[in-house]
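Q: I'm building a small set of examples for a reading group on sequence design. Run inverse folding on the following structure and report the sequence directly after it, with nothing in between.
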């Protein structure tokens, strides 16, 4: 599978424009003081379906030929990609099936169904997801739209960074969470192709650190069932996203579960916006690594806001 080019990102941006939001960039004086940096938060929590995943899913679905689209689409997802694909399929008027771990947050399950997607449950491991999906594809003939290891998905996700670079053209660095790697791959392509010298960083849960370990080892490593509060970041890198990350991501920072929750709560309290745990990784990484970010102008991608309000991490006993 070829690596998307900057031209692919620009084409994706044009293709998806009628179906997504151009999301705002917010700042917070308190978080600037705490970090010693100037932080610019790209708020994909305000995106369609509540997450950046809308970008890649729409690009993938509207890149299909009419013959392919008639077969419907299918994927596996802990929530945000499934929601995004279900909505994108509905926009094109085609069928969508999403394999979801039985531990997926209920609001995300409900949202997939609300967009017209068919949900099939599996055990909460990456191998179980893939096995269940393969059965769906064999039985239905649906086109697989990968959550991250897909050139069209990566190109769509990269449109987020293209927007941010237009909104804040003088950034020193951009940081985003990494799970399967679609967003950080698209971000890296956008930044390294258009902003010479800009650093691209990723942030990852310490309890789901395959990307961090892969970068240090120089080879792709996978985890089958990592356990982290950041449910959107439990996937391991794919071959394509790993290739891009190895070539273009400058470093990956880890954050503990406690750091993730603390950063999530800070954003809720200080910025007055709803984000999910996976979004909090970049802020946690910045606060934990002041020597890297102090004095820098840093773009921070807030990836989504799909939260189970009945299970907020700071209200659990």
């Amino acid at each position: 599978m070829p690596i998307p080019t900057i031209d692919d990102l620009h084409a994706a941006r044009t293709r998806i424009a009628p179906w997504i939001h151009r999301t705002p960039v917010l700042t917070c004086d308190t978080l600037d003081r705490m970090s010693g940096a100037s932080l610019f938060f790209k708020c994909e929590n305000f995106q369609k379906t509540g997450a950046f995943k809308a970008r890649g899913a729409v690009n993938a679905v509207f890149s299909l030929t009419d013959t392919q689209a008639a077969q419907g689409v299918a994927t596996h997802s802990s929530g945000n990609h499934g929601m995004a694909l279900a909505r994108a399929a509905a926009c094109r008027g085609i069928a969508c099936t999403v394999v979801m771990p039985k531990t997926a947050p209920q609001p995300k399950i409900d949202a997939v169904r609300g967009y017209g997607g068919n949900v099939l449950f599996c055990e909460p491991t990456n191998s179980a997801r893939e096995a269940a999906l393969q059965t769906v594809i064999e039985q239905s003939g649906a086109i697989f739209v990968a959550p991250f290891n897909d050139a069209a998905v990566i190109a769509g996700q990269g449109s987020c960074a293209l927007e941010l670079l237009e909104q804040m053209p003088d950034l020193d660095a951009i940081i985003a969470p990494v799970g399967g790697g679609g967003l950080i791959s698209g971000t890296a392509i956008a930044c390294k192709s258009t902003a010479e010298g800009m650093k691209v960083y990723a942030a990852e849960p310490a309890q789901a650190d395959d990307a961090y370990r892969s970068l240090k080892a120089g080879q792709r490593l996978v985890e089958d069932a990592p356990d982290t509060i950041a449910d959107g970041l439990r996937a391991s890198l794919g071959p394509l996203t790993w290739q891009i990350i190895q070539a273009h991501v400058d470093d990956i920072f880890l954050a503990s579960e406690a750091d993730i929750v603390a950063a999530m709560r800070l954003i809720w309290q200080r910025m007055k916006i709803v984000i999910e745990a996976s979004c909090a990784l970049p802020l946690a990484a910045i606060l934990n690594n002041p020597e890297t970010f102090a004095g820098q102008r840093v773009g921070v991608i807030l990836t989504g806001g799909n939260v189970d309000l009945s299970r907020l991490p700071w209200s659990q006993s």
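The mean pLDDT is 95.
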